[in-house]
Amino acid sequence: MLIRSKCLLLPLLLGLTVAVQASEECATAVQCNQVGTAAYQDGRYEQAIGAFERQLRRAEEGDTAQLELALNNLILASLRSGQTGMARAWLGVALDNNLSGSSTRLHLGKVAEALDYPTLAASPTGRYLRYGGSAVWSELLISEDGSGGYLASFSPLRAGARVEEYGPAAIGELDGKLVGDEVQMRLQDAGLGSDCAVQLLREGIELRVQEVFADGCQDYGGMGISVGGRYIKVSP
Hints:
This protein has 236 residues and is an alpha+beta fold. The protein has 8 helices and 10 strands. 42% of the residues lie in helices and 23% in strands. The strands form 2 sheets. It has an 8-stranded antiparallel beta barrel. β1 and β2 (137-144) form a beta hairpin. α1 crosses α3 and α3 (45-59) runs antiparallel to α4 (64-80). The longest helix has 18 residues, at 6-23.
């Protein structure tokens, strides 16, 4: 395990540990919903989130009703635990899956009321997440470099088929300097080849990363690792 990745992997793997503990009590989406609901009603929100994440993993195998229920459970538990950014991230997963039930519509309004969009969108600095399936998120941290510029630290993950038992199937690490106007930026000084461009487009709390796929351009991580895709900002 990469030492620097502790800042990313520790909270994510702690979440997986909670999910593994929940797996000892629930094996199906329905059972995990029951376990998570009991924890939620008891005020044990982190345990509830762990059970609901396991519910989501089972539901992603094809049960649309359980998928929407699991995501709404995660949205609500995140809101109740004060993790409004994560609530918005889970809502994004629901919307990306074209889910539009009454609970999803209700929670869309609740998230909009709870989340401080102006603060999140005011600066590029903060924590961004990209969903990778199986309740696993890749992370991007953007920070100030002390001289008016910004630094980017990517920690991409690939969940794999047995993430609950063994953790992510692959991890990566890519750090560099961001050059641009806070809307369009490119990654420099990241140890990549001259043809391995990584570009960022920031629009409010969403950020899109485009990278070149070529020999040697993804050597910053294990098999199937990439930093490209759409990210959502969850905290400043």
